[in-house]
Amino acid sequence: MALFKEGLNQGMQRVKKFLTFGFLILAFGSIASAVVVSMHSSLFIVHAVEVEDQPEDSPMSASDIISLASVPIGKLNLFQLNLKQVESRIRTSSWIKDVRLQKMPPQTLSVAVTYREPKALLQTETGSVVYVDGDGKRFGKVNLRYRADLTLLSGMGSSDTARAKDAIFFLQRWEKLKISKKAEISSISWDFDRGYRAVLTYSMGDRIGRTWLDLGQNFDTQTDLHLERLSKVIEYLSGHGVAVRQIWADAGKKIVVKTAHGS
Question: How far apart are CA 173 and CA 190, in angstroms?
Fold first, then answer.
């Protein structure tokens, strides 16, 4: 009798395992069938591409991004849409730094983009002007109505990404330290003999002073303390209306100033 009960229990366990396995196969089959039906159902045909809210001063419009995405509206099932291909098309714009795509059933593709941020203008070897970001990467067609207050970098060829990046880092330190509220760096150029040279403009009451600012071969020598000394010199020149021809900020701890004739 005990053996009969044991055999019965084992048989019941095998039946349960078989039923469970069969149920799982049936469930997976149903899911797969539903996926196949969805991928061919007209209920999931893409009818809209939506671009997430963008800042008012965005360099590209929502219609620009939708045009780049080139999604065949009304012709393709949402589940058959290849997101990698869509992303690749959007990234053909050098303005685009990052793309995030999300399928939103039943009929919508959501697009969110992050733009590169212009840190300066860069004059190329051919004389054209492009934007450059914090990594020294060139991009975009310049529109001065978008950003007209950027410093112009020159003398830095296509292989000089590191120099452009260093110049931008220097500008960021200049801004962060608030070197002088009355002075601006309008341009920075690279010269193999002189190193980095900037054009500095500063207020002289009812006049504007403009001078060369020599920064040396390496921005690493421009410590924050050294830049603070330069700030005090500029403040003095501005406050006393002193016109200068050149300022050397690459002479060790010293700031050397050559005044203009008659100052």
Answer: 18
Contact predicate 61/36, CB 8 Å? no
Enter the pTM of the model: 0.75
Domain containing 58: what range? 42-115
Same-domain check for residues 11 and 97: no
Q: Distance between CA atoms of 159 and 220, rounded to whole angstroms?
A: 20
Q: What is the pLDDT of residue 27?
A: 44
Residues 184 and 212 in one domain: yes
Q: Report phi then psi at 21, rounded to 5.
A: -60, -40
Same domain membership, residue 172 and residue 110? no
- Beta bridge pairs of residue 130: 122, 141
Q: How far is CA 82 from CA 41, 120, 146, 195, in A?
A: 17, 36, 33, 49
In this predicted model, what pLDDT tens digit does every residue of 241-256 receive, in sequence order? 999 999 999 867 789 9
The parts of the chain modelled with pLDDT lower than 50 are: 3-5, 8, 15, 18-19, 21-24, 26-38
Cis peptide before 59 (omega within 30 of 0): no
- 47 lies in the same domain as 19: no
Considering the domain architecture, whether residues 61 and 149 belong to the same structural domain is answered as: no
Q: How far apart are CA 123 and CA 114, in angstroms?
A: 25
Q: Name the helix (H) or strand (E) containing 202.
A: strand 195-204
Mapped onto helix, strand or coil, the DSSP state of residue 116 is coil
Q: How long is the chain?
A: 263
Cα(222)–Cα(227) distance, integer angstroms? 6
194 within 8 A of 214, measured Cβ to Cβ:
yes
Residues 124 and 184 in one domain: yes
The number of distinct structural domains making up the chain is 3
If asked whether residues 54 and 135 sit together in one domain, one would say: no
